Amino acid sequence: MKIQPKISDAEWEIMKLLWANHPQTANELVEALEHTKHWKPKTIKTLINRLLTKGVIAFKKNGRQYLYYPLLTQKTCIQSESRSFLKKVFNGAAKPMLAAMIESDDLSLDDIEELKQILKKKK
């Protein structure tokens, strides 16, 4: 399985916007993040460039605008991040991680049923 590039917490914020709606210009990303994260435009553009360098996003030129879009799906990135977390914190063992999350979280009956269905499908 191909190793995915590590995406920082700040870069995840850019990715979430692009997964939700793409393509987007740098100005659209700046406008969205200036209000929610109170980041400076230069910071946001630096994050965009880091994601380009990592090969996680790309752009197409439309006149004078650059339209950014994700190269990796949200599911792919979540799976990669989950594997990394599992390996780092639980030495790759899923059972202790699941037990820790279930024991520390307030799960509704619907959550429990959904987890049962997921486990049932996994069999």
Which helices and strands, and how do they pair?
Elements: H1 9-20, E1 24-25, H2 26-36, H3 41-54, E2 57-62, E3 65-70, H4 74-90, H5 94-104, H6 109-122
Antiparallel strand pairs: 1-3, 2-3
Helix pairs in contact: 2-3
- Helix and strand string, N-terminal first? HEHHEEHHH
Strand order of the largest sheet: 1-3-2
Largest sheet: 3 strands, antiparallel
From the alpha-carbon coordinates, what is the Rg to the nearest angstrom? 18 Å
Query: Please, what is the average pLDDT?
Result: 91
Distance between the termini: 22 Å
Structural class: mainly alpha
Give a description of the structure.
- The chain is mainly alpha-helical.
- It has helices at residues 9-20, 26-36, 41-54, 74-90, 94-104, 109-122, and strands at 24-25, 57-62, 65-70.
- Strands 1-3-2 form a 3-stranded antiparallel beta sheet.
- A hairpin with a 2-residue loop joins β2 and β3 (65-70).
- α2 (26-36) packs across α3.
- The mean pLDDT is 91.
Please name the defining characteristics of this protein.
three-stranded antiparallel beta sheet, 64% helix, mainly alpha, 3 strands, 123 residues
Summarize the structure.
This protein is mostly helical and 123 residues long. The chain contains six helices and three strands, in the order H-E-H-H-E-E-H-H-H.
